[in-house]
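Researcher: I'm preparing a figure for a lab meeting and need a structural model of a single chain. I don't have an experimental structure, so a prediction will have to do for now. The sequence is pasted below. Please return the structure as tokens so I can convert it later.
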Amino acid sequence: MRYVVVIASITFFLIWDGLYNQGRYLDATVREMSRIVSYVTGAA
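Model: Understood. Here is the structure written out token by token.
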């Protein structure tokens, strides 16, 4: 049941972000995650 709540809240966030913010928060999150991954792997 807890997985259903997590998936539903993530889906709600993505829909809300896409409709009202043109995906701004998702874009910033993806950029930050790729920056962290490249920092951790030393790909600089």
